[in-house]
Q: What sequence folds into this?
């Protein structure tokens, strides 16, 4: 057994991830801040697995310095901070945690549905100001109301299930065909969803198609007095059109967690949105996924992906690599190879194996337009010799015995 893999964790990643990686026998160094490019470049010598969150920028220069880097774990959802394509071309696989905070978002949506239908935000604020306003006007039960979910993915589908426990009728609109969970049902168009829904909750990703997809026309097609919830991405909704529809009473309220432009750091003043000061409008600072449970789940999910990649070569959960996963077979010896996707690589690799008089027990290859990723199990323990020979092939980017 060789030296333990060297792991560097930055940005105060959840303790559960550090524990999991140490338990695996890796040599883990932890730094609780993010590092600037110059410092990171110096710290990367010998590091094979790097864990970051959203602040550390993984630039082409950082990747160049990370000569031993095999994988980067983004202990968050977004991966914009990482130069994904240059990483892929260097044979560095990047993992993130796309699902770990989805339940947290769904729970916030459920809370907001009840808050909006009882004007809870306004009543709470008034009480803090010393105003006693006991009203039933404009307050409703959510039971029996229709919830329209736009984007029935990981979050939207959980919102639907939870809302049914409140006795809501749930419909959804999605561009893809999705299995309806519980008793909810799909509708054929956004138009149909808007006509029927008392609450509309958005759960689409940020794409060129969803940018501004909720503009004046869509907002005005919502039922009179309906509520709009946006916990997806700030660019999806035309925020001025939303403010206008709230001011003139077309909508009964809104809950907004995401904005077209968001501050990069916490501050005690200076944030501005046209929605401020409007009645029955819940504004939150992009906290949908921000719970301790989500942080822990992210820690587990990414640490697991990194461990599986290191121990078996599996790239399930990668965001920039061909996906290959091959179950480990006892008594066989594994190696992995990342190569330029050109004709003849498999032929050359297989020849190196037969040159060592070894037999291939299993082999799995997947490619994208730039690279190929191969996992191979041999019957004889000659992986080091084969890897040495592979490294001399002009097509090889990374070769590693596991
Ligand atoms: N507020 C927060 O803190 C927070 C936290 C996590 C995720 N999010 C955001 O929530 C959103 C949903 O996340 P998810 O994990 O459920 O994503 P997901 O990819 O699982 O689901 C998105 C769904 O939207 C559908 N879709 C895509 N384009 C569409 C369109 N034009 N019209 C209708 N449906 C469309 C997809 O087919 C998919 O089913 C994302 O924008 C994500 O960034 C916000």
A:
């Amino acid at each position: 057994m060789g030296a333990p893999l060297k792991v560097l964790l930055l940005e105060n990643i959840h303790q559960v991830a550090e524990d999991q990686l140490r338990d695996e026998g890796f040599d883990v160094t932890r730094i609780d801040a993010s590092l600037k490019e110059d410092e990171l470049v110096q710290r990367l010598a010998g590091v094979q697995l790097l864990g970051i969150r959203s602040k550390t920028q993984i630039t082409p220069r950082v990747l160049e310095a990370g000569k031993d880097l095999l994988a980067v774990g983004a202990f968050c959802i977004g991966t914009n901070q990482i130069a994904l394509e240059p990483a892929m071309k260097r044979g560095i696989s990047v993992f993130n945690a796309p699902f770990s905070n989805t339940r947290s978002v769904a729970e916030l949506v459920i809370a907001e549905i009840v808050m909006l239908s009882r004007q809870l935000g306004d009543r709470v604020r008034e009480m803090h100001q010393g105003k006693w306003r006991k009203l039933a006007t404009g307050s409703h039960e959510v039971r029996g109301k229709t919830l329209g979910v736009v984007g029935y993915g990981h979050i939207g589908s959980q919102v639907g299930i939870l809302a049914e426990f409140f006795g809501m009728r749930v419909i959804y609109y999605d561009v893809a065909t999705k299995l309806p969970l519980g008793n909810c049902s799909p509708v054929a168009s956004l138009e149909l969803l808007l006509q029927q829904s008392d609450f509309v909750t958005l759960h689409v990703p940020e794409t060129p198609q969803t940018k501004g997809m909720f503009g004046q026309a869509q907002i005005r097609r919502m039922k009179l007095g309906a509520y709009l919830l946006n916990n997806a991405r700030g660019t999806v909704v035309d925020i001025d059109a939303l403010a206008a529809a709230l001011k003139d009473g077309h909508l009964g309220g809104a809950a907004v967690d995401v904005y077209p432009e968001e501050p990069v750091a916490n501050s005690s003043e200076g944030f501005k949105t046209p929605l401020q000061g409007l009645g029955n409008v819940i504004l939150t600072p992009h906290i949908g996924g921000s719970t301790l449970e989500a942080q822990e789940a992210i820690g587990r999910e990414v640490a697991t992906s990194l461990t599986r990649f290191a121990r078996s070569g599996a790239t399930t959960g990668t965001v920039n690599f061909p996906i290959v996963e091959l179950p480990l077979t006892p008594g066989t010896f594994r190696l992995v190879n990342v190569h330029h996707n050109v004709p003849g690589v498999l032929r050359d690799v297989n020849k190196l194996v037969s040159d060592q008089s070894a037999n291939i027990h299993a082999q799995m290859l997947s490619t994208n337009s730039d690279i190929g990723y191969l996992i191979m199990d041999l019957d004889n323990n000659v992986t080091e010799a084969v890897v040495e020979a592979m490294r001399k092939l002009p097509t090889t980017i990374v070769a590693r015995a596991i």
